[in-house]
């Protein structure tokens, strides 16, 4: 048997749609695998009742098939599904790492990224790698068509999760098909600033680099109370705020000692909009690990 803890992640970070991602120190999924004749899946924990156990419909079923590694797979969810915190990706990344070892496939973590991303296609319709990459590699990752680059970083973050779920499939429907040259120029400037901020573990630069006028406004409109939560976070000291992945979580970056205030301000703002919410005070973190 192999057991892996795979962390939550936040993708996009505003300016890096389908490209940027960070691993979060918490929360995380725990995935255990045992050899079996055919793949079966058992899910417990946060939101387990909403996750299909049919291997054809579950993200880890696609991973087991891609690795030709049938197994009994147990997933203990620490990350609620439809949260914008890479819930399906954490399960896929954990399963990929565990099955690769169980069956001695010898693939590197980088090589496991596209395999885990296949699992994402089952859930969202697109094999985007911007959650599975940081869940496997840790730190800040840049996933492009020709591979993945990762850098260690140390940035304080708050992820605030409102109760109302949003599916990635639905949130991808509101992504515009075209950008203007002005929007492209702004986005490139933001993305470059954010990358520099991650390389220097500088939360101010990261916050500045989250600015995005292309995808985020449409995604934010799907989240009840987003504008108030974002404004409250900035008032409480956040350097930048954006939609985490496809939402509904909202990600804020701030100084380490402002995390409590930022977290409290966002939860209060959501609650004032009739949305129960919880906040994770966290940091950028490591990738999946054996336990
Ligand atoms: N890049 C993906 C999206 C992340 O925004 O649709 C989903 O968590």
Automatic annotation (TrEMBL):
<protein>
    <recommendedName>
        <fullName>Homoserine kinase</fullName>
        <ecNumber>2.7.1.39</ecNumber>
    </recommendedName>
</protein>
<dbReference type="GO" id="GO:0004413">
    <property type="term" value="F:homoserine kinase activity"/>
</dbReference>
<dbReference type="InterPro" id="IPR000870">
    <property type="entry name" value="Homoserine_kinase"/>
</dbReference>
<keyword id="KW-0028">Amino-acid biosynthesis</keyword>
<keyword id="KW-0791">Threonine biosynthesis</keyword>
<dbReference type="InterPro" id="IPR020568">
    <property type="entry name" value="Ribosomal_Su5_D2-typ_SF"/>
</dbReference>
<dbReference type="GO" id="GO:0005737">
    <property type="term" value="C:cytoplasm"/>
</dbReference>
<keyword id="KW-0963">Cytoplasm</keyword>
<dbReference type="InterPro" id="IPR013750">
    <property type="entry name" value="GHMP_kinase_C_dom"/>
</dbReference>
<dbReference type="InterPro" id="IPR006204">
    <property type="entry name" value="GHMP_kinase_N_dom"/>
</dbReference>
<comment type="function">
    <text>Catalyzes the ATP-dependent phosphorylation of L-homoserine to L-homoserine phosphate.</text>
</comment>
<dbReference type="InterPro" id="IPR036554">
    <property type="entry name" value="GHMP_kinase_C_sf"/>
</dbReference>
<dbReference type="InterPro" id="IPR014721">
    <property type="entry name" value="Ribsml_uS5_D2-typ_fold_subgr"/>
</dbReference>
<dbReference type="GO" id="GO:0009088">
    <property type="term" value="P:threonine biosynthetic process"/>
</dbReference>
<keyword id="KW-0547">Nucleotide-binding</keyword>
<dbReference type="Pfam" id="PF00288">
    <property type="entry name" value="GHMP_kinases_N"/>
</dbReference>
<dbReference type="Pfam" id="PF08544">
    <property type="entry name" value="GHMP_kinases_C"/>
</dbReference>
<keyword id="KW-0067">ATP-binding</keyword>
<comment type="pathway">
    <text>Amino-acid biosynthesis; L-threonine biosynthesis; L-threonine from L-aspartate: step 4/5.</text>
</comment>
<keyword id="KW-0418">Kinase</keyword>
<comment type="similarity">
    <text>Belongs to the GHMP kinase family. Homoserine kinase subfamily.</text>
</comment>
<keyword id="KW-0808">Transferase</keyword>
<feature type="binding site">
    <location>
        <begin position="80"/>
        <end position="90"/>
    </location>
    <ligand>
        <name>ATP</name>
    </ligand>
</feature>
<feature type="domain" description="GHMP kinase C-terminal">
    <location>
        <begin position="198"/>
        <end position="271"/>
    </location>
</feature>
<feature type="domain" description="GHMP kinase N-terminal">
    <location>
        <begin position="60"/>
        <end position="139"/>
    </location>
</feature>
<dbReference type="GO" id="GO:0005524">
    <property type="term" value="F:ATP binding"/>
</dbReference>
